[in-house]
Design brief:
The protein is an alpha+beta fold. Helices cover about 65% and strands about 15% of the residues. The chain has 11 helices and 8 strands. It has helices at about 1-40, 45-80, 80-90, 95-130, 135-145, 230, 250-275, 285-315, 315-330, 335-365, 375-394; strands at about 145-150, 155, 160, 165, 170, 180-195, 200-210, 215-225. Helix 2 (about 45-80) runs antiparallel to helix 4. It is flat.
Length: about 400
């Protein structure tokens, strides 16, 4: 028995580790290239992205490569009549099945952790690399495109000489407490201060215009500061999907308090207006704005409720894939592992992923309960149990 267990595990791990290395490397290369193109990252900063993209690549590649390894090993064993020989000597096929299921269960827990690491540490780290590289990104784009823009400002230049921007036009976008400003100068320089977390724009000998109301000229230097997170072209904003699992219960409790407070305020306001007979006030712009905010906060609460279910169900897709792949590979008795893999993976692709996407979107929208994200896993579990029963009985 131990010999069979050791044999299956060694064969499984050999194929799994080889396939995992190859597929993860491809995903990392694709992710790094995509991020470098989108963010216009210099080559030196691209290397720093790899550790942060690795958990994301692994959480995608592990379920697929584990299914590939399982179908490869068991389709070869079944096609070579090794499973028939095991049955002929009175040994149940369960002896060669349970080690793979046990390993898949362990890997599922690892994948849950990788899901958590990828969406919290990985995304935050990748965004930090982009933010801290904003000076190099801006100079690179200004040299090639003569323009750089972010949510807070935009720069157009005639040319770039070393670190000097010749003939720059800087547009500082309006904020909640600041007006829009347009500045034209003879030259300018950019400097990123990581300690203060600001991008400093130093302009010399130019003119300024404040929303068309106030204008003037300055012969000396003027310096403007833009927060690094606003100076970067990265527009992703942290949300429930960026939080580690350990923080989600705390944030959920806070969000529930916000929603309850808004509901109480709106209920009290509606009752007061109805007592006054001011029914038109219930359709005013202020009331509509409050309803929109309540809808937004409820949506955030639904996302917080959904996120733990999503990460655990995505992690345990490893076990569900193998639960289906192992008995199906044995039942098909086809030595061509690619055929067995695609015959297993295509139904999973058609059934599991659409159900998962529908469950996540519906749960985040509040139209279905959060545990609905497990629907795809449940379908695979039922299907795998049916196939396993056939394999063990016949």
């Amino acid at each position: 028995m131990r010999l069979l267990t050791r044999y299956v595990l060694v064969e499984l791990l050999k194929v799994f580790l080889l396939a995992l290395t190859a597929l993860t490397a491809l995903i990392i290369i694709g992710g790094v290239v995509r991020e470098a193109v989108v963010q216009s990252l210099p080559p030196a900063q691209v290397i720093w992205l790899i550790p942060y993209i690795l958990p994301d690549a692994l959480r995608i590649s592990i379920p697929v490569t584990l299914l590939l390894a399982a179908t490869t090993v068991y389709s070869r064993m079944s096609g070579s009549n090794e499973v028939v020989a095991i049955k002929a000597v009175g040994i149940s096929p369960w002896v060669i099945v349970w080690p793979t299921l046990f390993v898949a269960c362990l890997i599922s827990f690892v994948t849950v952790w990788l899901n958590d690491l990828a969406v919290s540490w990985g995304r935050n780290g990748a965004q930090r690399v982009v933010i801290e590289s904003v000076e190099e990104i801006a100079y690179s784009m200004l040299r090639t495109q003569r323009r750089y823009s972010s949510p807070s400002f935009a720069i157009n230049v005639r040319q770039v000489q070393g670190r000097k921007l010749i003939g720059p036009t800087v547009s500082l976008h309006a904020g909640s407490n600041s007006p829009a400003i347009t500045i034209r100068a003879e030259e300018a320089e950019l400097h990123c201060d990581h300690r203060e977390e600001v991008l400093r724009i130093t302009l010399r000998n130019g003119t300024f215009d404040v929303e068309g109301n106030v204008s003037g000229r300055f012969p000396d230097e003027r310096e403007y500061e833009v927060p690094l997170n606003r100076a970067s072209r990265s527009t992703a904003s942290p949300s429930a999907s960026w939080l580690p699992l350990r923080r989600i219960p705390e944030e959920t409790a806070k969000q529930q308090q916000i929603v309850e407070k808004l509901e109480e305020e709106m209920a009290a306001g509606a009752a007061y207006q109805m007592l006054r007979g001011d029914f038109d006030g219930l359709t005013s712009r202020e009331w509509t704005s409050r309803e929109a905010r309540l809808t937004t906060e409820r949506g955030q609460l639904c996302r917080l409720w959904t996120e733990p279910y999503r990460r655990w169900s995505a992690g345990f897709s490893c076990l569900c894939f193998v639960w289906v792949g192992v008995p199906m590979a044995i039942w098909l008795r086809n030595r061509d592992f690619l055929t067995s893999f695609f015959l297993c993976f295509v139904p999973i692709l058609i059934v599991y992923y659409p159900l998962m996407i529908y469950g996540v979107d519906g749960a985040k929208g509040g139209t279905i309960p959060p545990y609905a994200v497990w629907a795809g896993n449940v379908i695979l579990a039922i299907w795998g149990a049916y196939l396993l029963r056939k394999v063990l009985r016949y």
